[in-house]
Write a structure and sequence with these properties.
The chain is α/β, with parallel strands linked by helices. The chain has helices at 13-24, 36-48, 63-77, 100-128, 140-143, 149-169, 187-195, 201-205, 216-226, and strands at 4-8, 28-33, 52-57, 80-85, 131-136, 174-179. Helices cover 48% and strands 14% of the residues. It starts with a strand and ends in a 22-residue tail after the last helix.
Length: 248
């Protein structure tokens, strides 16, 4: 039976790579993002390769929009038993300049949004007695990152949420893990580097054990394993895909 996966923030970057990889593994995929045009391009790319996909427009921080999008996905492909929580926003603001509004917005998208989407799809996994949830966090949550207090804090919350849900949902047949990417050249990284006054990416990667920036496909490779049958005894884990930026 074909599994149905929902990937958030899938119009580009890591989300797009995960969607294409999971579709290649035979899953039907929901491509969810606030950028509907981008979702439709990714869905068309998957369909052209012989896969099944549907474009879904929603802000993950809006429960009504998420509920409607998931209902559309269920109608198209059936219950959702695989979830990749990838959508998020970044920011490069010195701590003393962070406003209440900025803090709240980053938390609302990165942490509350992950909570909302997971809660909306959970009944499908409970009914199936099987589920896979992968949260995309950040290595900045593990190391800290100057000028990224709201972002790193929100992603630290995603790691804690992952561990808590692994304990709570494990008895239901649902595993929950997270991948904190390192320096991955995607849309968020490009946005961050436009505001970064520190070390260029080319110099930064020379300090890492694997001397290159990551690619979205690197994250998708790990994600594909974590949502497979083979990873059923892995839950509550932080699987760092970071070129050795964080060694633990």
């Amino acid at each position: 039976m074909t599994k149905t996966a929902l990937i958030t923030g899938a119009a580009a970057g890591i989300g797009r790579a995960c969607a294409i990889r999971l579709a290649g593994e035979g899953m039907a995929v929901g491509i969810l993002d606030i950028n509907l045009d981008g979702c439709e391009r990714v869905a068309a790319e998957i369909k052209a390769a012989g896969g099944r996909a549907i474009a879904l427009e929603a802000s993950i921080a809006n429960r009504g929009q998420v509920t409607a999008a998931v209902a559309k996905l269920r109608k198209a492909f059936g219950p959702v038993t695989v979830l990749v929580n990838n959508a998020g926003i970044t920011d490069m603001t010195p701590f003393k300049e962070v406003t209440d509004e900025l803090w709240d917005r980053v938390m609302e998208i990165n942490l509350k949004g992950t909570f909302i989407v997971t809660q909306v799809v959970l009944p499908d996994m409970e009914a199936a007695g099987w589920g896979r949830i992968v949260n995309i966090s950040s290595s900045s949550a593990q190391t800290g990152s100057a000028g990224m207090a709201p972002y790193s804090s929100s992603k630290g919350g995603v790691i804690s949420l992952t561990r808590t849900l692994a304990r709570e949902l494990g008895p239901l047949g649902i595993t929950v893990n997270n991948i904190p990417p390192g320096t991955v050249m995607n849309t968020l990284m490009s946005e961050a580097t436009r505001h970064r006054v520190a070390v260029p990416i080319e110099t930064m990667v020379q300090t890492m054990p694997v001397r290159r920036a990551g690619e979205p496909a690197d994250i998708a490779n790990a994600c594909a394993w974590l949502v497979s049958e083979e990873s059923g005894y892995v839950t509550g884990q932080t699987i760092g895909v970071n070129g050795g930026r964080v060694v633990s």
